[in-house]
Amino acid sequence: MLCLKAAEQVLRKNPNHADTQAMKALIISNQGQQKEAFALAKTALNNNMKSHVCWHVYGLLYRAEKNFDESIKAYKFALRLDPESAPIQRDLAHLQIQMRDFQGYIQSRRNMLQQKPGFRQNWTALAVAHHLAGNLEDAENVLTTYEDTLKQKPTRADMEHWEAILYKNYIIAESGDYEKALEHLDAVGKKSPDVLGVMEMRADYLLKLGRKADAADAYAALLDRNPDDSAYYDKLISAKGFAEGDEAAMKEIYEIWSTKFPRSDVPRRRPLDFLSGDAFRDAADSYLQRMLRKGVPSTFANIKHLYLDRSKLEIIQELVERYLKEDVQPQMNGSAESSSEDEASRFHCSALYFLAQHHNFHMSRDLSKALKYIDEALQIDQKSVDFHQTKARTLKYFGAIPEAMEIVEKARSLDERDRAINTKCAKYQLRNDQNEKALDTMSKFTRNETAGGPLGDLHDMQCIWYLTEDGQSYLRQRRLGLALKRLHAAFNVFDIWQEDQFDFHNFSLRKGMIRAYIDMLRWEDRLRDHPFYTKVAVSAVSAYILLHDSPDLVHGPIPNGVNGVGQDAQANAAERKKAVKKAKKEQQKLEKVEADKKEALRTSKSAPKATDGEVQKDDPDPFGKALVETKEPLQDAMKFLTPLLDLNPESIKAQCVGFEVYIRRRKYLLALKCLLALHAIDPQNPTLHVQSYNLSKILNNDPNRASSKLAQIISTEGKTLLPEDNKLVEWNNNFLNHHRSSTSHIQAGLRVRALIGKEAKATNEKDLLEALLLDTTSMEEASDGLELLNEWGSPKEVKERYRSSAAERWSRASIFQAKQIEIQ
Q1: Rounded to whole angstroms, how far apart are CA atoms 430 and 539?
Q2: Record's SMART domains (predicted)?
Q3: Number of domains within the chain
Q4: Helix axes 531-549, 633-647, angle to 10 degrees
Q5: End of a domain among 611, 644, 677?
Q6: Are residues 634 and 738 both part of a single domain?
Q7: Residue 447: CA atoms inside 13 Å, Cβ hemisphere, count?
Q8: Which stretches within 526-632 are classed as H helix?
Q9: How far apart are the C-alpha atoms of 135 and 15, rounded to whole Å?
C-alpha cells in the first residue's frame, strides 16, 4: 500500500510520468486488478515508448497472464533499449528456460556471463544451457574454463564448487566417455563432501567399463552403508558375472549379507524371486514364518509380486494354510516361556490376515474365503484397523460399496489420529457418492480456516487424489458442473507444478544444486504422463463428451434415456421436459443453500483470513456453472486431451476418448490416428471394434462429410482396420464368433449389431442375457450390460430380468439391488 501511495503522489505532480505509471500498473496487477494494470501499462508505453522500465513491466504483466510469448517479446524490446540491464536479462533467461527455448537461453546466459564474468553462477548457468541443448562438449568446456581461472583451490566446505565438479563429471558420463569420467572422478572424488554420490557414480562407471572385480568391490562397499537397497544387489550380482540361472551362486551372495545384517529384509526376500522348486519352498517357509511371527502388516504386499509364477503362488498358499492347521514351532531360539502364548496368537492372526489378502488379490481371488479368514481374524482382534480395512476391501470387490463404506468408517473410528485410514474412509465414501460425508471426513485433518472451508484447504494442499475422486463421483451422478469444477481444479494443480519451476531457475543455481535441478527439469518435461493426470484428463474429456451429446445436462443431473441418449428419447419429449424442470429446481435449491452459507459467513465476526491478515475471497462459481455452460464443450476438452495424447500415447483410455472427441469434431484423420494407435496397443480391444464401425459408417454412408482426397487417405491408412460397407454384418458376426467366451467383446459386437439395424433389438437383448451367464463375466461387465440396455431403450421388464439375474449371481453387489437401481 505504501508503494501505491508513493506512486500516486508522484503522478499527482507529473500525471504522464511513464515509469511511475508502469510501476503502479505492476502494483495493482499484484492486487488482482489485471485489466486496469494492462490499461495503465499501455498508457505508460504511449507516454514513453523508449522506456525499458515500461517494456519490462509490460513483459511482467504478460507473464502473470501466462502469455509467455508476448512476455518474451516485451523483454527483448526492453533489452534493446537497455542491453546492460541485469534484471531484464535474468527475467528473459528464466522465461526462455521455462519455455525450453534452449538456443535463446544460451544466448541470454552468454550475455549475462560477459557482463559479470567473475560471478560463478553465470558460468554454471551457461553450462546448464549447453547441457540441456545437447551440447555436452561445450558444457564441459565452460566448466573447465572457469576452473582454470581459479587462483586458489576451494576448500571442502565450498559446496557450490564441489557440486559443480560432480556436475561436470555427470556431463562427461552422459557423453558416453566412462573411462574419462572415471579418471576425473578418481582425481576429484576424494575431496567431495557427497561421499555416497561419488561411490555410486564410481561403481556405475566400473560396471559399464567391464571392470567387474572392481565394480563388485565398489557395490559391496555400498551395501555396507545400506544393505536394504535392492538395486545394489542387482548390480553386485551383475558384476560377479554369474551364469544365467545360477541359483546357488546368487543365493550364496544373499546368505552372506543376511548373515552380516540379520535385521535387513532385502537379502532374505530377494532370493524368492529366482529360486524354484524345493529351494523356493524352504526359503519361502523361512521368510514367511519370520515375518508372520513378527506380525509385519506389509508381508503380503512384499510377497504378491511372486504370484506371476503360478507354482510359487500355490506353494505360498499351501505353506500359510499349513501354519493354521499345524502347531508350527518358533524358528528363533531362546523365546521366553511367558511370551510364547502371545507369539502364537500373533502368528495365527498374521496368517489369517495374510490369507485374507491372498484371496483378495486378483490373481488368487476367492472372496468368500477372504471374508471367512478376515472374520476369523477380527474375532481374535476386534480393534485392528488393518483387519477392518481388509474386510472393507473384500466387500468392495463383492460390490457391496455401502457396506464396505460402513466397515472402513468403523476402522477410522478405532484410530481417529491416523491420517491414512481417514483418507481411505473418505475415498470409500466418494466411491459411494457420499460427497458431503467425505468432505466432512477430510475436514478432520484440515484447518478449516479458509473461505472455502475444508474444500478450500484441500485445494491449497493440492490434494489431487481427492479432487479427482470427487470429480469422478459427480460425473457418475451426471452433475457435470461440479464434476468439471473438481477436474479443472486438479488440472490446475499440474499447471501450478509446471509454474513452480520459476522458483528454482534462480534458486538452484544460487545454491549450487545443479544435478538435482537438471533432474527436476527433466521430470517436469514428463509431468503429465503421471497416472493421476491420465485419470483427470480422461474423466474431464468424458464429461465434455457427455455434455456435447446431452446438452440438457447443463441444468443438472438428468437420468440416462430422457436426454437424447437412448434410442427412444425423441418420442419422450414430455418426460424430457419434466426431467429438465426437476433438474433446474434442484440446482436452484443447491444455489440457495450455498448463498445462505455465504451470507451467514459474511455476517459473522470470524470471517476467514489469509496468513497476511486479508479476508479471503469467496469462490464466485462454486457449482461450475461457467464451465458447464460452455458453448464449445469439445473445444474445451482439447485442453485436457492434447497433453494426454502427447505424453500418454500408450494409454488405451486416452486413445478411446481421443477418438470420441475427434469424430464429433469431424477430424477424421486424427480419429483414425487414435484408432491405429489403439490397434497397435491392443488389436483385440472391444472398444476398437465399435469405434472402427462408427468411423466406417460416417465415411461410407455420408461421403460428403469428408473430401474425396481425405477419404482416400483414410481408406489407404485404415484398410486393414475399417470394414467394407457391404460386409458390415459379416465383419461383425466374425467378431462375435471369434470372441464367444469374452463378455466385453460380445457386448461390443451387440452394440455394433444394434447400430447396423434396429430390428435386431430383441435378439441383442437375448444374447446379452446369455453373455451374463458366462463363467468369465465380471461384475463390471455385468454393469456395462445394464448400461447397454438403457442405451438401447429396452423395456423395463427386460432390464428387470437382466438385473435379477445379475443380482442372483452377485448377491451382495449394491448396483444390482432393486432399491439401488432405477429401471427406466
Answers
A1: 15
A2: TPR
A3: 2
A4: 150
A5: 644
A6: no
A7: 12
A8: 531-549, 573-603, 625-628
A9: 51
Same domain, 736 and 775: yes
What is the domain-level CATH number for residue 478? Answer: 1.25.40.1010
The reply to whether 803 falls in a domain is yes
DSSP 376-408: HHHHH-TT-HHHHHHHHHHHHHHT-HHHHHHHH
Domain end, chosen from 609, 644, 679, is at: 644
Residue 308: CB partners within 8 Å, gap ≥ 6?
363
What span, in angstroms and rounded, lies between the C-alpha atoms of 101 and 634?
31
Task: Give whole-number Cα distances, 100 to 68, 543, 732, 746, 801, in Å.
Answer: 12, 32, 48, 48, 59
Tens digit of each residue's pLDDT (9 = 90 or more) over 91-132 = 999 999 999 999 999 999 999 999 999 888 999 999 999 999
As a whole number of angstroms, the distance between CA 397 and CA 744 comes to 19
Domain that includes residue 489, residue range: 462-516+527-595+622-644
Q: Are 340 and 327 in contact (CB under 8 A)?
A: no
In the predicted model, is pLDDT for residue 57 greater than 70?
A: yes
Q: Is 469 exposed, middle or buried (0-12, 13-18, 19+ CB in 10 A)?
A: buried
Q: Are 705 and 697 in contact (CB under 8 A)?
A: no
SS3 325: helix
**Within-domain flag for 371:** no
Within a domain: 571: yes
Residue found by looking up cell 519451476 in the block: 501
- As given in the structure block, the three cell numbers for residue 639 are 485442453
Residue 342, all three cell numbers: 502371545
